């Protein structure tokens, strides 16, 4: 191998162009790397070489620094560049998150690249399963010294089935949480500063379904971004990545009822009611939306694919990214039913009506925000006066849209009659054929020609429901329902917008097909 005692490379970053020079200094016996910008030395780094292979050590150090520097896409201070390139815990089994790109583990590669890109992230460490309690304590003290924070989060490295411990304020609590992750679960633990968020949420760097050059952002008040699966109403924003203009931000601001926040007295995570003056206020300012969109665009350059970023906005308005994932085919299928997009309703009419399936009381109380054509009331486990009360609330919120109630017994039928007697004539029933209701518009269950789902027929047409299931992955079935002349299709609330587009698209295709056939017939005549 050719002997090298000096390597030089020019690197282009989000901060500007740098020149990296790595040499072995005979006088000190160390490998020295100098970072130049504009002809000035901005950073000096020292490494102890392996005496048996100095050339290999020069190459290893140089290539490592060049690679990490090339990932820097966001403008940061020289001090932050120094942290990204040199910060070390000095421990074998506990590392700073800035060391992930250099020392692994592989399952955190995407998060390591996020950190290396210069994105604002909460200070953190990674604890390996082999870590001793002494290393865990030393790592925690280093993190506390670096961040100055008083509360922390510990979570598993694996995203699937992720376990998270919140609001850790003492080493004893941290020790128990980390040991549970690394010893009992055999996973790596990520410990990070917990940001007391004013707002939080997630974003997609591009529209993952259509490929549109648009950043999609959803957010709410409080720390909902930390709590996965938390059912809160989210504000929605779309930003054109080519212009980044205030007046081009597309917004859908919804009423927000509750927020999760840290109680100033107890320090616990508590659910608070949102005051009326904030309920309809945007959880992000236009400036914050644009900052998040621009940061996402910079980070995306390291992945060359659409990415999803979880974020929080601190009380003083600073953004932090808490997690990242690359959107692949699997994620896109999942998004077909989960992603809420801000598109206008189709401009052409659709005969098929989409009913949102209501399966619990919480969903029933938010139906006024659902862009559906009616409700399929399928609540089980609620009986007596409670059933009647929820049904009346639903009928009132939905009126004049139909509310089709799946009835199982005479008590539920009586609740339907009571609702209609109070003037809610939009309430109908769907029965299995055993319970016959003569005085209420009814759908009666019939034998289904499909592999899945149930078919009902009544005076108002045909209704299809695949109770509790998601229809988005089975678009061929949805199109077949349209072609078969169904009047009502019951869907999960999260997939209303998407399936309305699918239905409208299929009906438009059928209309064009009929038009072509008519033109051909006209030509023959």
From TrEMBL:
It holds the Pfam family PPDK_N. It comes from Desulfurobacterium indicum. InterPro entries: PEP_synth (IPR006319), PPDK_AMP/ATP-bd (IPR002192). Transmembrane segments: none annotated. Residues 189-317 form the Pyruvate phosphate dikinase AMP/ATP-binding domain. This is Phosphoenolpyruvate synthase. Its cofactor is Mg(2+). Keywords: ATP-binding, Kinase, Magnesium, Metal-binding, Nucleotide-binding, Transferase. Gene3D superfamilies: ATP-grasp fold, B domain. It comes from the Bacteria. GO terms for molecular function: ATP binding; metal ion binding; pyruvate, water dikinase activity. The keyword tRNA-binding does not apply. Belongs to the PEP-utilizing enzyme family. The keyword Phosphoprotein does not apply.
